[in-house]
Amino acid sequence: MTNEQELISKAVSDRELSEITKVIRKNKISEWDEVVYDHEEWHSSDGNSFQTLKTADDTEYVFEMNSDCEVGVLGKLYDLMADLDLVIELDDDCEHTFRKLSEKEQDEIVKKAEYYGELFVTDRTAFLKDAHQPVRFRLDDKFDSSLYCFRINGDTRIIASVDDDPIFKSVIVTLLSVFRDRDMKEKFRSVAQSFYRRQFADVKQI
Amino acid sequence: MQTKTLVDEHGIISEACRILPDDSHKISFMEALGELEDNECHKSRTFPKTRMHPVRGAKQKVYRADIDKISGWRLHLQLIESKLYLRDIIEGQKHDDVLKVIRRKKIRYE
C-alpha cells in the first residue's frame, strides 16, 4: 500500500474542493458545516494514488476522482488500510522438505515469513536491508525478480518471493526452498531458474 | 458502465489475431478482454473466465489471465496506475505451479 516517505502533498483546486464538499454533504458523511481541510494526495511505490481529506470531526476519508471529474467516496482511510491480507504460500517442490521439519521449525519459518511480509508493507527500506538477492534475474526482458533469501536462524535459510498484489489487496510470500549448510548463491540460482522456467519464456541472469 | 482501462502498447491484440490457432480461441480472447475490463469483476475480485491471479516472483505486479483453460493459452498483464497493460500472449503450458496457502492474516498498517 502506501509508504509515508512517499507521501506528497498537492494543492487542491477550488473546483475539486467544491466537488468534494458537495459529495460529503450529500452523503451526510459529516454533520459539521465546515467539512473539509487537510487535503492530501498519497502516492505509493507502485504508482497508485488516492486522495484523503479530514472532516471537521477529524475522520479521514478516501476519495477518487474519475476522468469525468466525478467524485466518489471510497471509505474511511483507517478501514481501507486495514483491508490488506498477508498470504504465506508453499511451493509444491518446497513442501516435501518443509513437512520433514519439526513443528517448531515449521512455525519459526512461517513466523519469519509473516515478519518479512509485514515489513515489506510497513518499512520497505528495512525489508531491503534483510532481503538478499545473491543472483538477480531479468524475466522476459521486461520484469525484475522478486525472489529473496532470508536467514531464519543459525544456518537455516529460506528462498521466497515477496509480491505486492493490489488487485486482490494482498501481499504474498511464497516459500520456494528451505535449506541449510549450502552455497547460498548456487542454491538460489538453481531454485530461481527452476521456478522461473515454469513461468517465463526468457530468464536471464544479470 | 464503468470499465477498467486496458492498454495495449505492444500490439498484443494484433499478435493474438495472428497466432491464436483458431476462431474459437479468438472468441475466447475477446471474452477474456471483456472480463478484464469489467469493473464489477475487479470490485468483487472474482474472474471466473480468466481466473486472473498474480504471477509470483516478479516485482512489477504481473498478472496471468487464461484465454483458454484447456489449451492453456494465457495473457500476462501488468498493473500500472490502476490500468492493466497487456504484456504478453503465451502458448499453452502442460501444467501450472501448485501453491498451497499455509497462513493468511490481515495486515494492520499504521
Task: Describe this structure as you would to a colleague.
The complex is a heterodimer of chains A (206) and B (110). Chain A is of the alpha+beta class and 206 residues long. Chain A has 2 domains: 79 residues; 121 residues, YaeB-like fold (2-Layer Sandwich). Chain A is built from 6 helices and 11 strands. Chain A has a 4-stranded antiparallel sheet with strand order 1-2-3-4. In chain A, strand 1 and strand 2 form a beta hairpin. By secondary structure, chain B is α+β, with helices and mostly antiparallel strands. Chain B has a single domain, classed as RelE-like (YaeB-like fold). In chain B, strand 4 and strand 5 form a beta hairpin. The longest helix of chain B is centred in the N-terminal third of the chain and has 15 residues. The chains are: A alpha+beta (206), B alpha+beta (110). Chains A and B meet through strand 5, helix 4, strand 7, strand 9 and strand 10 of A and strand 2, strand 4, strand 5 and strand 6 of B. Strand 5 of chain A pairs antiparallel with strand 6 of chain B, so a sheet runs across the interface.
Q: Strands of the largest sheet of chain B, in order across it? A: 1-5-4-3-2
Report the CATH architecture of chain B: 2-Layer Sandwich
Mean pLDDT of chain A: 76
The amount of beta strand of chain A, in percent, is 25-35%
* Overall number of strands of chain A: 11
The major pleated sheet of chain A works out as: 4 strands, antiparallel
